[in-house]
Amino acid sequence: MTVRVVGFARARELLADRGQVSVADGGSIADAWAQLVTAIPELSELSASVRFAVDGALTRPEYGLRDGQELAILPPVGGG
Amino acid sequence: MSIESEAIDPRAVEDRVRAPGFGGVVTFVGVVRDTEDGRAVAALEYEAYESLALSEFDAIAVEVTARFGNVRLAIAHRVGRVAAGEIAVAVCAASEHRKAAFAACEFAIDAVKARAAIWKREMYADGRAAWKANA
Prior knowledge:
The complex is a heterodimer of chains A (80) and B (135). The mean pLDDT of chain A is 96. Helix content of chain A is 21%, strand content 26%. Chain A contains two helices and five strands. With 80 residues, chain A is an alpha+beta fold. Chain A is globular, with a radius of gyration of 12 Å. Chain B is α+β, with helices and mostly antiparallel strands. In chain B, strands 3, 4, 6, 8 and 9 form a five-stranded antiparallel β-sheet that branches. In chain B, a hairpin with a 4-residue loop joins strand 8 and strand 9. Chains A and B meet through loops of A and strand 4, helix 2, helix 3 and strand 8 of B.
């Protein structure tokens, strides 16, 4: 299945024009992240601190993705 | 609750929470500092995951009510380039009396900094730039 990927801040820069990732059916967010880190090794600098959202809601890494969902990559925040 | 791409007018944010029966209004205004860790800062560039940030602002307002009672809360946060000296964020809390308004306002800005889906890049006067996460 294919999941759309959107990154913010440093993750947006590192993802560049990569807008999707393919994972095996039943794969989790953690699986999708592992795919992305394999493709773009610099993303590993975020691995210890990254959070994820699926279709606009914060979601844990073990969440099972479905085809066509949007996975957002959220580095540590810096508002205020 | 709002994400703004133009200058924030704190008085306009305050007007969102003012109401009869709410005698204490506390406004926090966050302004871009011109130095950070000894480096001259020209501007901050903010970006937001807007729908998530707004839903987090709403959740903070619910939490504020649970902790401090009947509080009206408004949050406005900038995105885009915000020059040193300009307003990055305004948080306004109104309550029947001042103590809850002060406490709610402080809680809300701390929560915004800790978890709202907003990021900033420090643009230094020497032309360099770096993403900066909150401590």
